[in-house]
Design a protein that fits this description.
Elements (H helix, E strand, L loop, with lengths): L2 H4 L11 H12 L1 H12 L6 E5 L5 H9 L4 E6 L2 H13 L5 E4 L12 E7 L7 H14 E12 L5 H9 L4 H7 L3 H7 L3 E11 L2 E9 L4
Parallel strand pairs: 1-2, 1-4, 2-3, 4-5
Antiparallel strand pairs: 5-7, 6-7
Length: about 220
């Protein structure tokens, strides 16, 4: 077992919590508004190949496929149990989505495979080194002119999110996000035109929606 695999955190934090993942996410994250905004800002167009990085139970991948039916959607995650849920959800919805098991720092795709990579609420689970490795691997699989759209916890906006950030006990993985380090990590990995498009306040903190270009990759 690799060190990265040994440190891997499943989508729900623990396998026993997986059945609760989707309903809890809907409750805590104001999910519909969050995912609608994230998809709109990702500018997915007909014919695009989309990678949902850290797809979990497949909710975002299914939404992309429903809203952008002329796109090709691939979901990848390191959690086989979450992927089983995602495949069942896609089958019930009669949606053609490829789901693959892999970690973010070793994607099983050729160079320049995707027009967009979307990743939501994955990077706060990663160490500093794993964040950089995942970003570099993402850059590798993006086509020149493609874009990474990343949504994850960031600096708190508003009194509630600021209070929560002070009260919550968190390790270095989340602390780096709350300090606003993600944009600089994206630049360090080789991305250009890094920008924060918006933010989304939830019951568990502020989520920032970031975008970065693979121009010149």
């Amino acid at each position: 077992m690799t060190q990265q695999r040994a440190q891997y955190i499943p989508a729900a934090g623990h396998d026993a919590f997986l059945p609760l993942y989707d309903p809890v996410f809907r409750l805590l994250m104001r999910e519909r508004a969050f995912r609608d905004r994230f998809l709109e800002q990702s500018d997915v167009r007909p014919g695009h190949r989309i990678l949902d990085l850290g797809c979990g139970t497949g909710t975002m991948a299914l939404l992309i496929r429903k809203r952008r039916p002329e796109s090709v959607v691939v979901g990848v995650d390191g959690d086989p149990r979450a992927l089983a849920v995602a495949r069942n959800k896609a089958a019930r919805a009669s949606l053609a989505i490829q789901f693959d098991e892999a970690l973010a720092d070793a994607l099983p795709y050729p160079d320049r495979s995707f027009d967009r990579v979307l990743s939501s609420l994955v990077f706060h689970h990663l160490t500093h080194e794993d964040k950089l490795a995942a970003l570099r691997e993402t850059l590798r699989v993006l086509k020149p002119g493609g874009w990474l759209h990343l949504a994850d916890f960031g600096p708190p906006v508003g009194w509630y999110a600021s209070l929560l950030a002070r009260l919550v006990t968190h390790g270095g993985r989340l602390r780096e996000n709350l300090a606003g380090c993600l944009p600089e990590l994206m630049r360090e990995a080789g991305f250009r035109a890094v920008q924060q498009q918006s933010h989304h306040n939830t019951l568990v903190g502020t989520v920032v929606l970031l975008a970065a270009s693979a121009a010149g990759a």
